[in-house]
Specification:
Oligomer: homodimer
CATH topology of the largest domain in chain A: Rossmann fold
Order of helices and strands of chain A: HHHHEHEHEHEEHEHEHEHEHEHEE
Shape of chain A: elongated
Helix content of chain A: 40-55%
Number of domains of chain A: 2
Distance between the termini of chain A: 75 Å
Largest sheet of chain A: 6 strands, parallel
Protein name (chains A, B): LacI family transcriptional regulator
InterPro entries (chains A, B): HTH_LacI, LacI/GalR-like_sensor, Lambda_DNA-bd_dom_sf, Peripla_BP_I
Strand order of the largest sheet of chain A: 2-1-3-4-5-11
Keywords (chains A, B): DNA-binding, Transcription, Transcription regulation
CATH architecture of the largest domain in chain A: 3-Layer(aba) Sandwich
CATH superfamily of the largest domain in chain A: Response regulator
GO molecular function, one term (chains A, B): transcription cis-regulatory region binding
Amino acid sequence: MAGMTIKDIAKKCHVGVSTVSRAMNNHPDINPETKEKILKAIEEANYVPNNSARNLKRNDAKAIAVLVKGIGNTFFSELVGILERECEKKGYSCILQYVDEQEDEWDVAIRVGKEKRLRGLVFLGGSFSQSQEKISQMEIPCVLSTICTVGMPGASLASVSVDDFKESYKMTEYLIGLGHKKIAFITAPKNDASIGKLRLMGYRTALEQYQIPYREELVCYMDEKRDTYSYQSGYRLMQELLKRETFTAVYATADTLAIGACRALKEAGISVPEECSVAGFDGMDAGRFYIPSLTTIRQPVEEIGKATAGLLFDLIKGKEKPRQLIYEGELIQRESTARCKQ
Amino acid sequence: MAGMTIKDIAKKCHVGVSTVSRAMNNHPDINPETKEKILKAIEEANYVPNNSARNLKRNDAKAIAVLVKGIGNTFFSELVGILERECEKKGYSCILQYVDEQEDEWDVAIRVGKEKRLRGLVFLGGSFSQSQEKISQMEIPCVLSTICTVGMPGASLASVSVDDFKESYKMTEYLIGLGHKKIAFITAPKNDASIGKLRLMGYRTALEQYQIPYREELVCYMDEKRDTYSYQSGYRLMQELLKRETFTAVYATADTLAIGACRALKEAGISVPEECSVAGFDGMDAGRFYIPSLTTIRQPVEEIGKATAGLLFDLIKGKEKPRQLIYEGELIQRESTARCKQ
């Protein structure tokens, strides 16, 4: 059926070309049965509409973009893959856009949203300490993925994530349960107002709940200028920590950071978990196959990816209002953590 | 200069609107000097053409797509990041499109090239045993990245890669130099006619050069249906190998496969490198921070990514003919390989 045109479809369905166009463009002014008949005919004919002609009418390129901040974070590549496949199912193009660490992801979003005439946007990573004013400049639906906005300035935004406070509390409590009292914490830059803040609060609250004094010296923040959620940063930050503190456990807020930290410990002659327990966050495959395999909080990446796409498409269709979806993380106990011997 | 229209550009250059259109659309029927003048004026004016209107005329959405086959291969995510940033610099959108293992990447390419009216395409992964006939159906410029086509059916295609035969020979020779004779080989599916075939030839030729008989039983092919270039597949394939063969070294054609293999060896109580050397291919960060750190062939991913984008944009502009760019890999010797003790 190659070479089939909109006219052929119209003829086949005994309707006018404009009716076919209304069906294709989801126009409300069409009989639902007619619409169904036309869409079925299009499908059967393998008719590929001329997108550009459609775009002109609809002002709509049927594309969404995924803005990724933190290129070192391989956790995101799995999520991007899931999002792309969901777009494919819906007939959307998935434009990938990386944001430099120094750039404001919100400025980038507003710019590309206009330039590329996107229908929607997904944010992966970023700190989201945005003002309400900036948020209101955004003219298209967007969803923050793996970023929790509850109680944050961006609380009006749609998001799909785990409860970062709760999961972080859970991991800290688990390490305390193993007898650790000196628990170092490797985390996001100090000014991170979303994930970083919530996970720090979870860590701190758990310590206090168990009468362990919170010590700022045990917290090692990523350097906003030098670090990303990468193996290299975990390695570097652990080397720094080793110079200034003693501890029996380390909890890093990404598996990549935890793996880098393990490598630095090994090179310093400290064995994991015998002399130091190490725990991560995310549940990446790399941690599962690492030696020692990594104790972590598994984020349900498949569910989060699908829910992100689902929520975004509902927002695009006007079927939903922005809301916050929270998924449960899972503490996975592996070889990198053990009972404190001191 | 916001709000500048095609008419303003025409006026500024003392030409008609249709001439500006011809310049923008790379139409052959235009005086080269006039074309240059117009393009310069457009650039100076920061004129952002109305994409949808242009598409209709130009058949051109200023987008390229990156087709990724092998979602488990985190090596590609770094490359995708580099490609995206190069697109950004040129004002192109970078559409990400995953190809399922079962799909023919060439069919997908032909389809999305038309549907999304792309200006160009980059292939990452895939086997490329395409017939010349299929290749000739492709109407837009494309570049194979990290896929070597020299001597392959797709030799007319542009590609940027290392010399897979040579690099594979290099790694095998290195292991032979350590005294290994029983070198297992974990690689692409048997029917892979590009990278897989070339790397197998490199392995085989090195063995024969050193009078070591090639034994098919030591070669462990990925199962086309079950495996990807993932940690999990390396783990599974090593478990299979351990059941049927003895060997003192393993060379896997991806770092992910090698890391999975290390994990399976550990669980079988075999220490790396004391009892078995393990080598990978790619030079991923994960291998650098693994314990033991992984001996590998580093592909110059930054150079390959930039050259891929550069070649593609040159092809799009008609400045280049398809050609094959070969980069040098680097053998990085780390902890996972050692002298054979048997």
